[in-house]
Amino acid sequence: MKKKQTSQNKSIQKRSPSIAPAADRRATVSYDPLDAFLNEIKQYPLLEPEQEKELAEKYQETGDVSMAATLVTSNLRLVVKIAFEYRRAYRNIMDLIQEGNVGLMHAVKKFDPAQGVKLSSYAAWWIRAYILRFVLSNWRLVKLGTTQAQRKLFFNLNKERQRLTAMGIEPTTDVLAERLHVKPREITEMERRMQSEDVSLDVEIGDASGRMVTRGELLPSGDEPQDETLSAAIFNDDLAFHLRSFGQGLTGKEAVVFQDRLISDSPKTLQEIGDQFSVSRERIRQIEKRVMSDLREYLENQMDGYFNAEPEV
């Protein structure tokens, strides 16, 4: 019996795969996506200014995607450099690089070599813009800055406060406002936003009686009477219909300003629309003002019953 078991054990050992020693099993190679990306972009050579200009001119003429790809890959190191400037504001550096790459591709698409500016100098603005927008959109659940001025203030406020402290100057609200060319209330508002924390409405807390309830349960009810709710729904439907009708009558720059800025959930900046049509942001601001004036007049004519209704006594 023992001989039979011994032969079976030997047979099992022969069929079993060999198990590596413990030391070999521990010798695993860790994968770092940042190192992998940095090693990958090293294979793309940098372009000389003359080569870059010639390639940009050909891409502008032909729209050849391969030429755009060459312009992008030759400037990937620039994206990494700028992304590292914001690594303290956002932990995942690869996310910043990814957003910067999108900005770089947009810059290559919009770049005009006839302006006499290097692509890297032009692209740096777009790369920073995309990274800044990403950081502010993901730094907290509640957005801290929605306008270009607020985004600039968010990144410069603490930096300027530290600079003043190092110079021996007390960084008061008035001093910061003067140095950053903003109003004192903007400083106060941004500081309040930065110091406050996101709070979940589902977190349980104790009420006056000691019962555990959520923050959401303690908020006042926003329910409106049924007649007011119905009236608001009818008004919103009428407004949406007339907005669509007004927008269908617009063309060119006016249509883009109306759709992408005035009624968009994620409105573009004046600069973005200006770059789209190769005009100044001031020109787009003038168009926006005219469209808003026409829209107001149009709604007053089409929705006269709402605008000129007699108030209830």
Characterize this entry briefly:
The protein is mostly helical and 313 residues long. It has 17 helices and two strands.
Tags for this entry?
globular; mainly alpha; 17 helices; 2 strands; 313 residues; single chain; Arc Repressor Mutant, subunit A; Four Helix Bundle (Hemerythrin (Met), subunit A)
Task: Summarize the SSE layout with pairings.
Elements: H1 2-15, H2 22-26, H3 33-41, H4 49-62, H5 65-73, H6 76-84, H7 93-110, H8 119-138, H9 148-166, H10 173-180, H11 184-195, E1 204-206, E2 212-214, H12 215-218, H13 226-248, H14 252-262, H15 270-277, H16 281-302, H17 304-307
Antiparallel strand pairs: 1-2
Helix pairs in contact: 4-5, 5-7, 6-7, 6-8, 7-8, 9-11, 10-11, 13-16, 14-16, 15-16
- Low-pLDDT ranges: 10-20, 22-27, 140-146, 308-313
Rg: 30 Å
Q: Tell me what the CATH architecture of the domain at 36-138 is.
A: Up-down Bundle
CATH topology term of the domain at 36-138: Four Helix Bundle (Hemerythrin (Met), subunit A)
If you had to describe this structure to a student in words, what would you say it looks like?
The chain has 313 residues and is mostly helical. Among the domains are: 36-138, Up-down Bundle (Four Helix Bundle (Hemerythrin (Met), subunit A)), CATH 1.20.120; 148-195; 239-302, Arc Repressor Mutant, subunit A, CATH 1.10.10.10. Helices cover 67% and strands 2% of the residues. The protein has helices at 2-15, 22-26, 33-41, 49-62, 65-73, 76-84, 93-110, 119-138, 148-166, 173-180, 184-195, 215-218, 226-248, 252-262, 270-277, 281-302, 304-307, and strands spanning 204-206, 212-214. A two-stranded antiparallel ribbon has the order 1-2. Strand 1 and strand 2 (212-214) form a beta hairpin. Helix 4 runs antiparallel to helix 5 (65-73), helix 5 crosses helix 7 and helix 9 crosses helix 11.
